[in-house]
Design goal:
Helix content: 25-40%
Bound molecules: 6-O-phosphono-alpha-D-fructofuranose
Radius of gyration: 22 Å
CATH class of the largest domain: Alpha Beta
CATH architecture of the largest domain: 2-Layer Sandwich
Largest sheet: 8 strands, mixed
Order of helices and strands: HHHHEEHEEEEEEEEEHEHEHEEH
CATH superfamily of the largest domain: Fructose-1,6-Bisphosphatase, subunit A, domain 1
Strand content: 15-25%
Strand order of the largest sheet: 4-3-5-6-7-8-9-10
Number of strands: 15
Structural class: alpha+beta
C-alpha cells in the first residue's frame, strides 16, 4: 500500500509535522470562561452575563452555519419582498437571523426585551419579564446586501440593564447614552467566524473553532493604532455631502499616504480598522443630515468598542457615547476608528 521507502517513522514525522500544536489552555479559553474572568468573583451577575454571552455565541454559530449553506439550501439568498421599519428591503437572512436571536434568548431565561433593526417595537419575552433585567439590542445581519455575493456580513449587539419595570412596554429606559451599555460586540461572518466583545475591560476577539464548536480566544486587549492609512466611506455619496466632508476627501485623495477600503458592511470595515487603524465615515447628507446608521444597535456598540480599544467615535461634533437618543431607531452620522484620524476628520467638519 505504501511505497517501500515509507517507513513508520516517516509517517510518524509527517503526522507530527501536519498537526499544528496548540496548548490545551488555549483551547480551554472559551468565551464563557473569558467572560467569567472579567469579574473578580463567580457572582450571580458574572454567571448571568457569561451565560448570556454564550447564548449570543450560539446565535452566531447558527447564523454562520446557515450562511455557509447559502445557495445550497432554501431561504438564505434573496429578498422577502417586505420592507422593514427603516423602509429597507428585507433579505431572507435578515428574518432568519432575527428569529435566531429571539429563539436563543427566549430559552436563556436571561433577557426580558429584545430591540432589533428588524422590529419596529421591542420584543418582550413575557416568561422572562420582569425577573430578568437585561435587554439585548442588535442588528441581526449588518450588511445583508453582501449575503447573495458571499462577502462578509456581521451581527452587532449591545447589552443594557432594564431600568425599572417597563409597565407600558414603551421601553423609555432604553433611551440612554452609550455609557450605560453593560457589554457590546459583534460577530463577523467571513473566512472565519469571529466574535469581538467588551464588557468595559478591554476588547477581546474569539475565533470559532468548528472542530470544537466553540469560540476560542484569539486576541486579548486589542488596541486601535492611533493613526492609520485607511479611510472607509461610500464615495458614491460625494455630491450629497457637505463641503467640509468633501474637503476631507480631497485631502486624503491628495495625500498619498491614504488608501480607500469599503466593503458595504460596517462590521467588516470596522474590524479592519480595529486591527490595522484608519477611519470609517458615514456622514449625513444635505437631504438626510442624520445619516444612515442606527445609534442604539450599530453606532453605540461600535463606539463602546472603539473607546475601549483607545479609538474614538463621534457624530462629527459629539462623542457617540454621549448621545441620548429620542427614539429607538434613531440614526446618527458616524465617524469612528483611530483617535488621530477621527480628530483629523473633525477638524475638517468643523472648519469653514
Ligand atoms: P451604503 C449596511 O446596509 C449598512 O447598514 C452598513 O453595514 C454599511 O456600512 C452601510 O449600510 C452601507 O451603506 O449607503 O454605502 O450602501
Amino acid at each position: 500500500m505504501w511505497p517501500n521507502s515509507w517507513s513508520l517513522s516517516n509517517m510518524v514525522n509527517l503526522q507530527t509535522l501536519s498537526v499544528p500544536q496548540r496548548s490545551l489552555d488555549q483551547d480551554c479559553t472559551t468565551l464563557s470562561r473569558h467572560v467569567l474572568g472579567q469579574f473578580n468573583s463567580f457572582s450571580a451577575e458574572a454567571q448571568d452575563l457569561s451565560a448570556l454571552m454564550n447564548r449570543i455565541a450560539l446565535a452566531g454559530k447558527l447564523i454562520s452555519r446557515r450562511l455557509s449553506g447559502a445557495g445550497l439550501i432554501e431561504d438564505v439568498l434573496g429578498f422577502t419582498g417586505e420592507k422593514n421599519v427603516q423602509g429597507e428591503n428585507v433579505k431572507k437572512m435578515d428574518i432568519f437571523a432575527n428569529e435566531v436571536f429571539i429563539s436563543v434568548l427566549r430559552q436563556s431565561g436571561l433577557v426580558c426585551r429584545l430591540a432589533s433593526e428588524e422590529m419596529e417595537k421591542p420584543y418582550y419575552i413575557k416568561e422572562n419579564c420582569p425577573i430578568s433585567r437585561y435587554t439585548l439590542l442588535y442588528d441581526p445581519i449588518d450588511g445583508s446586501s453582501n449575503v447573495d455575493i458571499n462577502l462578509n456580513v456581521g451581527s452587532i449587539f449591545s447589552i443594557r440593564q432594564q431600568q425599572g419595570i417597563d409597565i407600558d412596554e414603551q421601553a423609555r429606559d432604553l433611551l440612554q447614552d452609550g455609557h450605560s451599555q453593560i457589554a457590546a460586540g459583534y460577530i463577523l461572518y467571513g473566512a472565519a467566524t469571529i466574535l469581538v466583545y467588551s464588557m468595559g475591560k478591554g476588547v477581546h476577539s474569539f475565533t470559532l473553532d468548528p472542530s470544537l464548536g466553540e469560540f476560542i480566544l484569539s486576541q486579548e486587549n486589542i488596541t486601535i493604532p492611533r493613526k492609520g492609512n485607511v479611510y472607509s466611506t461610500n464615495e458614491g455619496n460625494f455630491w450629497q455631502w457637505s463641503e467640509q466632508m468633501r474637503d476631507y476627501v480631497r485631502y486624503v485623495h491628495l495625500n498619498d499616504g491614504y488608501t480607500a477600503r469599503y466593503g458595504g458592511a460596517l462590521v467588516g470595515d470596522f474590524h479592519r480598522i480595529l486591527l490595522q487603524g484608519g477611519v470609517f465615515l458615514y456622514p449625513g447628507t444635505i437631504q438626510k443630515p442624520e445619516g444612515k446608521l442606527r445609534l442604539l444597535y450599530e453606532s453605540a456598540p461600535l463606539a463602546f468598542l472603539s473607546q475601549q480599544a483607545g479609538g474614538l467615535a463621534t457624530n462629527g461634533e459629539k462623542n457617540i457615547l454621549d448621545i441620548v437618543p429620542q427614539h429607538l431607531h434613531e440614526r446618527s452620522p458616524l465617524f469612528l476608528g483611530s483617535l488621530e484620524e477621527v480628530k483629523l476628520v473633525e477638524s475638517f467638519l468643523q472648519s469653514r
